[in-house]
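Q: Fold this one first, please.
A: Sequence and structure below.
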Amino acid sequence: MAEEFLHLSAADQRDALGVASGASGRPVHLLEKDVWVVWALEKMFASKYGPQLIFKGGTSLSKAYGAIRRFSEDIDLTYDIRAIAPDLVAGIADALPPTKSQGKKWSGEIKDRLSTWVERDALPIIGSAISLASLRAHPHIKGDKLYIDYEPLARGTGYVPPIVVLEFGARSTGEPHEVRGVVCDAAAHLPELTFPSAHPQVMRVERTFWEKATAMHVFCRKGYYRGEDAKGFSRHWHDVVRLDESGYAERAIADRNIAQKVAEHKAVFFAERDAAGSTIDYEYAVNGGIRLVPEGDALKVLAEDYRAMVGDGLLFVDTESFEALIERCRQIEQRANSVRKTQK
């Protein structure tokens, strides 16, 4: 019977990941964090709440679809709004508030409920699993985020900390989604060991493309990212180019229904203002007005973050220069804007 990786001593785990690192070319500290990411997914989706959770974001593109070639370190999970707020969405087919003012009320109520759920239900799931297996980790929460601080076997440049963040949201249904298998990156190189694995419900790539594209649009219009998003935001540009290479971007651009749904959802739940103080129009963005390439100082800030990401080994293969990446995004922007214009 294969021995479980997480039951090995720290020294044996380090040696095993050293072998996987030599075979894959990926740094030990990223292979290690990947194990924790998959472990956390396994525990959450094996829980009684698994049917109400949807795995999304860059990590889902990497782990569930193999659509991007970078290490994505955190876990974005949607707790179906219909499960956490059935009273609010009763009788509403698309589970969206009818007005922006209602959206603000819903957001406040859902945030309170979600924080309570993370503390009362999600934290014990992870905490009990850690205790049961005597793992070298400590879980804690802050609002709607659950953090798993683990004792690292190795360290990189510091860009990627030894912490797995499960960031929960609950303002959508997460549709469309499907069940996908997820395994650890090191598993293929160490067949004599058993690693965590999971089968989460995953947001479809077409919606994730538009979620990322509209986030990029906001950055281009504002010129900056706020708060914790200010680190690592260049991942969106890398991801969109990789989605274009794999054919997913073309499919997403052609799917006007998903583009419209994302615009409607962000308009009521994620209203933003541009650098001039005007409200950002998401519907205009997905219908011929998307911006994926920033200008001026914003472009310089984006370039610095991209180079930091490359420097810590987050990209699995030789990657293009920042200038080449931006040119690819410019081409995607032009194609995305021309599709809708052609249809008018």
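Q: Good. Now the second chain.
A: Here it is, same layout.
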Amino acid sequence: MPTEAASSLASQSPSPSQRRAAFGIIGVLCLFALIAAPFANVRLLPVPGFMPAFGALMFVMDLVTTILLLSQSQVDQAAGTGRLGLAYLFSAAIIVPHIAAFPNALMPGSLIGDSASAVWLWFCWHGGFAVLVMRYAIGSGRAERRVGAARIAAVLGVVVVLSVLATGGLSLLPAILQGNSYMGLTRLGGGPLVAVLNLMALLLVVRRWRCRTLLHLWLTVSLVAACIDVGLTLLASERFVLGWYAGRLFSLLTGLFVLYALLREVTFLHVRVQRAHEQLEIIAHLDGLTGLANRRAFDQAVDREWRRARRDGTTLSVIMLDVDQFKSFNDHYGHLGGDDCLRKVGGALRGVLLRPGDMACRYGGEEFVILLPNTNRAGAQAIAERARLAVETMAIPHDLARTRVVTISLGVATARQPLAADSWMSLVLAADEALYRAKAKGRNAVCEAA
């Protein structure tokens, strides 16, 4: 199975519920068509502004669909999705002269050509769209250069040529209108040809992808709507009857379903990118060895808490600590043993913190720091002593230490109502100085900053 479909914008596989929804819609469309077909020629009142509104909606939907498909083609460096984009570009472009030629749509009479021009442009619109979809289905998966400006210009050039032929070259074309009826299109074979082309496009898409992706599932629904559109329009035989109005409705659905699939995939990709960004943010603030917050996360958190303490007049405490005689431990037990020791120390520090706002971080190497918002001297000293005991009672062997087990030394600093001129760095420095005094006392101790 070629991989082009998997790299297209709507590469997501449809869920069972999405498949049921799509096939349910196909059933509803077919049921509506069967009910409407016997009444296709029931005359209804002309609705002022219907055709301009219809044309504007078709143009916008098909143009947005084109932009999404061509953009994905540029990203994937592949022509497959872009070829489908060219089909919708053709549809968006040819709707403009079709509405301009439609009698009394934009002005009394026709802006270009005459009433027969609108019929011929309808024939070119629905036939050309089906041909381009077939080209997409047949050509997908083949190695081919991606869609560029030349192909876009070629499609627009074809629209211009067809528009000129259908307006200025009517004398070269067979007469298809008899009064208000366009049954001449069917008698000449043009109507059946358009119906066959749309049916072939539907069958090729179904055979090629079997609704395996979200895009092709809804493209199938769109092509079902296109076939019904052509069928009801041909049954109607003239404008402003029930079949003709229903055909315009199905034309809108032809563009709507694929646009829905693309916009849904854009939303899906946006959610994935957002989640990936959040995951990267988490990873960027975690120490890979211990699972604690890293130095970057601590710097951001202590700055935030310092500002809050200064604003609210609360206390802020910091505990600096490191593993006693860790260099000798690392040399004796090896780097893997050292890493395992740091992981266990990190787990012990995490276990002594009881409040969500408290934060244990790996500051660097064997040095750690604990941030305690809204914690006074006594509370900080109590947590420091719990941390010291937690590491000591793990009894991690350290043959070169006086205690014969791994221990930590800790320095505690508390700031009350920090002044605007102060910096949180002074608090960290005070805790660091207290840490060195704890080590000077013989290690495995807690010292408080002055």
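Q: Anything worth noting on the second one?
A: The longest strand covers residues 315-323.
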